[in-house]
Design brief:
This protein is an all-alpha fold and 132 residues long. The chain folds into two domains: 53 residues, no CATH class; 77 residues, AhpD-like (Up-down Bundle), CATH 1.20.1290. The chain is 83% helix and 0% strand. The protein is built from seven helices and no strands. Helix 1 crosses helix 2. The longest helix is centred in the C-terminal third of the chain and has 24 residues. It is globular, with a radius of gyration of 15 Å. This is 4-carboxymuconolactone decarboxylase. It comes from Lapillicoccus jejuensis. One of its GO terms (molecular function) is peroxiredoxin activity.
Length: 132
């Protein structure tokens, strides 16, 4: 197996663990000839190279990711990563603290929107758990 193939396999495993098999399968199914190279890059580099590094655990990486997504206003990705943060072991209270910290450094309007999105996603995840 080549180094790129190893990175892709490691990235795919982490991506599935963090975002869920269902999300990764949907992304793969939606890939086109145009977007496939981007999916490959994300899987190999973001997930296979960065998320697999030993310097930070997944909980910490999730907290950082939530903050970065609020900072940049990447709201769809924020919703996705709220679920990822829960899968990586962050409690609802810890997610709340990340968003409160974001309000101080990134602004109240951004944090206000992040809280609304996170609350909806956490309620959806809780309903999913109750129904399971």
């Amino acid at each position: 197996m080549s180094e790129q193939q190893e990175q892709w396999a490691a990235g795919d495993a982490v991506r599935r663990a963090v975002l869920s098999d269902a999300h990764v399968d949907r992304s793969a199914a939606a890939a086109t000839d145009f977007t496939a190279p981007f999916q490959d890059l994300v899987t190999r580099y973001a997930w296979g190279e960065v998320w697999t590094r030993p310097g930070l655990d997944r909980r910490t990486r999730s907290a950082i990711t939530l903050t970065a997504l609020v900072a940049r206003g990447h709201w769809d990705e924020l919703v996705l990563h709220v679920g990822a943060a829960r899968r990586n072991g962050l409690s609802v209270a810890e997610i709340q603290e990340v968003l409160l910290q974001s309000a101080v450094y990134l602004g109240v309007p951004a944090a206000n929107h992040a809280f609304a999105l996170a609350q909806r996603e956490l309620a959806r995840l809780e309903a999913e758990e109750v129904g399971a």
